[in-house]
Amino acid sequence: LWSCLTCRACEGRCPAGVGFTEFMRLMRVESAARESAPVHTHGRVVLDMMEIQGWGLDQRRLDWIDDTLQTATEGEYLYFVGCAPYFDTIFEDLSISLTGAARDTVRLLNHLGIQPIVSNEERCCGHDPFWAGDVETFRELGRRNLDFIRSSGARRVVVSCPECYHMLKAVYPEQLGDLGVEVVHIFDLLVEAVREGRLEFSPTPRIVTYQDPCRLGRFSGVYEQPRELIRALPEVELVEMKETMENAICCGSSGWMNCTAANKAIQVERLRQAGASGAEHLITACPKCRIHLSCALRNDDTDVKIEMQDLLSLLAEALKEG
Fold first, then answer.
1. Is the pTM of this model over 0.70?
2. Is 3.40.50.1860 the CATH number for 200-318?
3. Which PROSITE patterns does the record associate with it (predicted)?
4. Domain extents for the chain?
5. How far is CA 104 from CA 79, 109, 263, 318, 322, in A?
6. What does the alpha-carbon distance between residue 156 and residue 56 come to, in Å, rounded to a whole number?
7. In sequence order, what are the residues at sequence separation of 6 or more whose Cβ sits closer than 8 angstroms to the Cβ of residue 31?
8. DSSP, res 167
9. How far apart are the first and last CA of the chain?
10. Could you report the per-residue pLDDT of 130-182, keeping only the tens digit for each?
């Protein structure tokens, strides 16, 4: 029950099309109601952080915004950042900047003439409590986010985190009600801008491979957009891993509920596939993919030598100004 990654890989292979993932989630709801829960990783600090966000306390989640970025307090676009500001503190030992990708998202939006609303009123989207069977915490976080989004005056919510995107796009309307705004992934805006000639890039020579996040790929069907953006980068070669797109291997952990030898084996296998592709850089679009795979690389669980980077940071690095 608790070792399932809820990645939907099994559903794509099941000839009967059984919805195992939702079944597992509902079983977790029943288990949690009976006060039967797993041993959470990291001393449960991550899920505690998410629960505390539902208490209504004041937050300081905007320290990553510097003077080079243009944000607003009102307007058409609202950028839903996700838990990256908290992850940067909790996983400081990994030396990866997850708010760097958020910063680069705003930079790319600014390049398109968009000054998004970014606010301390945002809360965790509730993804992890939702998949851990903690309905009460999910609903409290969701209620606060709905109130915040509806009162912002924005008409479009831009999301970069795959899990936040799936929650706001699919789960909130189903479980909590209509947001009253359009939810768009940042990739859709960027692909549109590339096709219209409003977004151009300078050469950044390298060979890359792309890790499909489960919530962005199998859950949301976003496969081609990131690849189109990578192909728009001059002198960047995209090579695919052995298992990709619908068949991509999960990064090996989900919801901070398991970090066993089996999870590590999944991560090592994925890193070896990345190394075997001939890529110099492993590109992803998910904060958790970066956390889990960076942890496996740091712990020398594999002899693969490869650099990890968020796709949004790669795009911002190659951005042609002017």
1. yes
2. yes
3. 4FE4S_FER_1
4. 38-192, 200-318
5. 12, 8, 30, 11, 17
6. 24
7. 1, 37, 133
8. I
9. 53
10. 999 999 999 999 999 999 999 999 999 999 999 999 999 999 999 999 999 99
